Amino acid sequence: xxxxxxxxxxxxxxxxxxxxxxxxxxxxxxxxxxxxxxxxxxxxxxxxxxxxxxxxxxxxxxxxxxxxxxxxxxxxxxxxxxxxxxxxxxxxxxxxxxxxxxxxxxxxxxxxxxxxxxxxxxxxxxxxxxxxxxxxxxxxxxxxxxxxxxxxxxxxxxxxxxxxxxxxxxxxxxxxxxxxxxxxxxxxxxxxxxxxxxxxxxxxxxxxxxxxxxxxxxxxxxxxxxxxxxxxxxxxxxxxxxxxxxxxxxxxxxxxxxxxxxxxxxxxxxxxxxxxxxxxxxxxxxxxxxxxxxxxxxxxxxxxxxxxxxxxxxxxxxxxxxxxxxxxxxxxxxxxxxxxxxxxxxxxxxx
Length: 351
Fold this sequence. Notes:
Elements lengths: L2 H4 L27 H14 L4 E10 L8 E5 L2 E3 L8 H14 L3 E6 L16 E9 L6 H9 L5 E6 L3 E6 L2 E6 L13 E6 L4 E5 L5 H10 L3 E5 L3 H5 L8 E2 L4 H7 L5 E4 L4 H12 L5 E4 L3 H9 L3 H8 L2 E2 L11 H16 L5
Parallel strand pairs: 10-11, 10-13, 11-12, 13-14, 14-15
Antiparallel strand pairs: 1-2, 1-5, 2-3, 4-5, 6-7, 6-9, 7-8
Helix pairs in contact: 2-4, 5-11, 8-10
């Protein structure tokens, strides 16, 4: 007789065990994907190539991005977007001038008037952005600060003044510069602008099944730091190298004991026993979002093998089946549904 026959039946809760109550408000992490921009900025610093970091200081009205958004401009190319593409040529031109002169430049883009609805760069958004253009070659030591943020678990803080005073800090790393600065395109009543970039969200993917091929790069593109744990060499080989930002070393238990607890753990081994073992460990960890792949019946069978304290510990954090109900079948559709649910949960929205 199977172990399931002797396991206690799951008591009927007020709601199904796989339906989490969620979290009030957004996760205290960065929006979007600034990691790509800051990784490119770090590479530009290391290679000593002319590059300019554009930072949105203020916005008003309807704009493509918010204050605190970054983009990198160098050698006729850019990483990150401050508009849908219509404003980038002008920003690139001014960024090249800042890089060549080694000075801070400023740019105001205002499309709030009726006259701004038409023209070559007309966005029709009726919004305003004020941008600082920071020449990276004139900022020795900024790479160490960018690395500290990219390594995770700290907030990047930037303060820039109209007189060219610039400070950058992340965790224990900090730097200060005094640069020549152009006169802002606008009346600089603020004098000093401060930008705060919280850490990136962390997701652990437990199991490299067919969904991982689509899910891992999608999560990274959305700004998540992704760690993959897959002890089965054959399954891991399906995805090649670089399928996550990092691995989990010797195993989940050691990772939970030695690494900062992630925001999300996705249990998707396609193995009943491995998923049960993972849930046992995650029940005792303070992971706020635990996603379990598979149908409700499988979830209930797994729950019956867990002790009552562990079931109770998981009940309000477990999302099973994981994924927003978008329709469709197959690994790509499943990956998209998981990413959609995580995107909504990250920002405190319903999915």
